[in-house]
Amino acid sequence: MPPTQPNGNANVNFFADYNNLALIAIAVVSGGLLAWPAIMRSTSGKSVNTAGATQLINKRNAVAIDVRDAAEFAKGHMPQAKSAPLADLPNRAGSLAKDKSAPVIVISQTGQSLGKAQAALKEAGYSEVYALEGGMTAWQQAGLPVVK
């Protein structure tokens, strides 16, 4: 038998207690914040980790497009990567790869904020555009080749 309140009412109205409402609000907000990265990933486009990128390059002749500025590109980039700074990408997107059905991997320093780059390449007619998860930082940490 459930415990009774002093007035003898066994039914406790959980949602009427302001302390419980605050806890419910905190749970909903924290759940939303935890889900936010997954939601943004699914709306911004496809992504690929370093192993997947290597397979795309080796097996399907994927084109690597580095959207970092020229100075960052010169410090080190993936072998055969094409430099197309994010600001210039919309103007250069059409001429970066001969075959627009080939996979394209977009690279930044940390893999963040590549939605604009992916959108520009899709708009230019590329059918399969991936963002490199973790960017050049992850590529270097995986011990993969870097050209300077």
Automatic annotation (TrEMBL):
Keyword Transcription regulation carried by entry: no
Record field: transmembrane: 20-39
Signal peptide region: none
Gene Ontology terms for molecular function: thiosulfate-cyanide sulfurtransferase activity
UniProt cross-references to InterPro entries, sorted A to Z: GlpE_sulfurtransferase (IPR050229), Rhodanese-like_dom (IPR001763), Rhodanese-like_dom_sf (IPR036873)
Domain Rhodanese: 58-148
Superkingdom as given in the UniProt entry: Bacteria
Keywords assigned by UniProt, alphabetized: Membrane, Transferase, Transmembrane, Transmembrane helix
Enzyme Commission number(s) from the entry: 2.8.1.1
PANTHER family reported in the protein's UniProt record: FAD-DEPENDENT OXIDOREDUCTASE, RHODANESE-RELATED SULFURTRANSFERASES
Listed name of the protein: Thiosulfate sulfurtransferase GlpE
Protein species of origin: Cupriavidus pampae
Lineage, top ranks: Bacteria, Pseudomonadati, Pseudomonadota, Betaproteobacteria, Burkholderiales
